[in-house]
Amino acid sequence: MVPETPLGKNSIVDVRCEETGGRKFIVEMQMEWFPDFMQRVLLNASKAYVRQLPKGDDYKLLQPVYSLNLVNHTFEPNLDGYYHYYHLVHDIHTDKVLDGLHLVFVELPKFKAKNLTEKKMQVLWLRFLTEIDRDGADDVSQDLLDNPQTGEALEIVRESGMNDAERAAYEGFWDRVSIETTKKVSFERAIAERDAAVARADAAEAKLQQDKLQTARQMKSDGMSVESIAKYTGLSADEIENL
Fold first, then answer.
1. Most buried of the four, 74, 122, 161, 163, by CB within 10 Å?
2. The overall pTM is greater than 0.70
């Protein structure tokens, strides 16, 4: 859904979700950086970790919480990498990890795709976030257009950059597409239902004919006259003679 408010285009995206295995994920896109942002992220992830366990439940039911933060700012200018992963780890034996909180910060301005043909979703999404601006959504890489997920996101970007008249025309176009699609589906459904009804009628008629022939055979074997058999079955004399 495209925001209708004037501030909609500058909204912060904050998504909380849970996978089928129970792990919790918090995804946030931060347009502006402020010094306490990392503490805020830690607080929110900690809340999500604590609140998942009702009082009295077993601690082993706790699931890890992953906080992914996409930041449109270089907050670590002295570090080369754009990907920053924080978790609870032993200070000496780094293979010893407490699997509870996982915080990931991505500095979008630092990201540069090394291989533009790479199709991994992580790379495609980071390219989408760093290569696309609202005014240039029509001049994009074919890789991003071909992928169903980034392609759909591009449509949302295009729509979000429209003025009221453009959005009305865009929505009107898709309304007309929906109407034509509905008409086509309804027509095809009606044709299919008609064909099915004809097939059922033909099958019923064929079965009735077979029943008549079977009855006529039995009557003929019992010695009844052709005239009597024709009277009770509706078969012609030739049909009865050929049995």
1. 161
2. no
Buried-exposed string 126-156: b where 16+ CB fall within 10 A, e elsewhere: bbbbbebeeeebeebbebbeebeebeebbee
Give the three-class secondary structure for 25: strand
Alpha helices in the chain (DSSP H): 37-51, 121-131, 142-146, 148-160, 164-221, 226-233, 237-241
With 90 as the cut, is the pLDDT of residue 90 above it?
Answer: yes
SS3 of residue 26 by DSSP: strand
Q: What angle do CA 141, 32, 73 make, to 5 degrees?
A: 55
Rounded to whole angstroms, the Cα distance separating 197 from 201 reads: 6
What crossing angle do the helices spanning 121-131 and 148-160 adopt, rounded to 10°? 20
Greatest alpha-carbon span in the chain: 110
Q: Which two tokens stand for residue 127?
A: 């390219």
| Per-residue confidence (pLDDT) for residue 96, from 0 to 100 | 93
The three-state secondary structure class of 97 is strand
How far is 103 from 69, CA to CA, in rounded Å? 8
What pLDDT band is residue 11 in, cutting at 50, 70 and 90? very low
pLDDT, tens digit, 9 for 90 and up, residues 192-201:
999 999 999 9
